[in-house]
Amino acid sequence: MEKGKISSLQMAMMMYPAIVATAILSVPSITAAYAEQDLWLSPILASLTGFATAYIAVRLHKLYPSQTVIQFSEQIIGRIPGKVLSFFILVYCIQSTGQITRAYGEFIVTFFLFKTPLIVIIASMVLLCAVVVYGGVEVLGRAAQLFFPVFVVPLILLIPLLSPNFEIGNILPILEGGMMPPIKGAIMPSAWFTEIFLILFFLPFLADREKGMKYGMITVFVVMITLVVVNLIVLFVLGITTASKEYPLMIASRYISYADFFENLDAVIMAIWIVGAFVKISVFYYVVALGTAQWLNLSDYRPIIWPIGILIVQFSFWSLPSTMEFSRYQNTALPFYANFIQVFIPLFLLVVAVVRKRKQIGSKTS
Amino acid sequence: MNRREEGKRKGERKVRWGAFFATAVIIIVIILFQWPKMKQAPKKDKWAFGVLLLIGWGLSMFDLQHMGGPTAWIEALFRPFGKFMEK
């Protein structure tokens, strides 16, 4: 169905924005609400789920090297249960795609295009991503590779530009309330880290499969570093008030004033965000299109990209009447939902697969 | 004022013809674009394409924002855990 090949580095460059893009904007304030000045510890704790997910995904991939999770779940637990399980994964993926698009639209409407209807922003982004997904995994990989520096360099430049505003003392006192607040703050970002689960849909198309594990782990590690740095930047600039800002990095970037020349750089943050969101939505969109086609045993996923686009736009509004409702869903339900689908289901599949393989070997030798 | 608000709310519950016809136009464009390329495709592909478009069109009739759906069900399902997150 998919004849393209990508390198494992391209996969990492795809997955990095696919996790970080939305995380750098909303995670600092959500984490700060629980962990206060210890918010920089939470991504380190949350990354444990990321490493575990990457490990599970690669182990599963090694058992069924040429198949995605939608295909091999049928082989592991049987046809009907496998279909049901895959259906839940697909619903999760299409829901996430819709909600990422919604978050993207909300951000643009809040900060830049005040009068544009949300649906216009969402629909145009979905259309753009549909075109990329139509190109296949190779186009997606190259687009991600092309945009990777555009996404990362401004993020790194933020550190020296903001450093005159740093109040290093904001970090104190460390662990004032014990370990519990950072742990609670880590539950939310763990939802982002589990998204590394999506490598299960890309590993079969790698040209260098043996490096899959290495680059999966590198991706999680770099994401962790990025989130720690972003949280620290936000903490140093805004202090405890981080929790009350919806997009703290955006607010922090408005503090930039360097040599009377570099000012009002929030437009740069928007550029990063749009590039990142574009890669992120495309990755999720591709997973939904490919997964659905494999679930229905179609010969090609390209024809169903357009109908899925309509569904994604609808899912970005479904049951989410307002920004308030949306953020409440993200805070209370999403972390557990994401962990359930992206950690527990693969773990369950892996355990069943390993046990069955052992039994087969056992029956053969006896 | 009250009556107007009530009317507004009632209006929202009706079929949203604007969205319905806009989606219909989009679907026609999609079919015009994709169908010629699908001449060789197996029957199953054509069915999947058509059924998914129909689902999208059907959903466009409803007022999705104020309707229960997968997202609302998930939220209800994970509410006990969510309580832990609410301080």
UniProtKB/TrEMBL annotation, chain A:
One of its GO terms (biological process) is spore germination. Belongs to the amino acid-polyamine-organocation (APC) superfamily. Spore germination protein (SGP) (TC 2.A.3.9) family. InterPro entries: Spore_GerAB (IPR004761). It is a multi-pass membrane protein. This is GerAB/ArcD/ProY family transporter. The keyword Thylakoid does not apply. The chain crosses the membrane at residues 45-64, 84-101, 107-134, 146-166, 186-206, 218-240, 267-292, 304-324, 336-355. The keyword Repeat does not apply. It comes from the Bacteria. It is found in: Membrane. Its main location: membrane. It comes from Bacillus aerolatus. One of its GO terms (cellular component) is membrane. Keywords: Germination, Membrane, Transmembrane, Transmembrane helix, Transport.
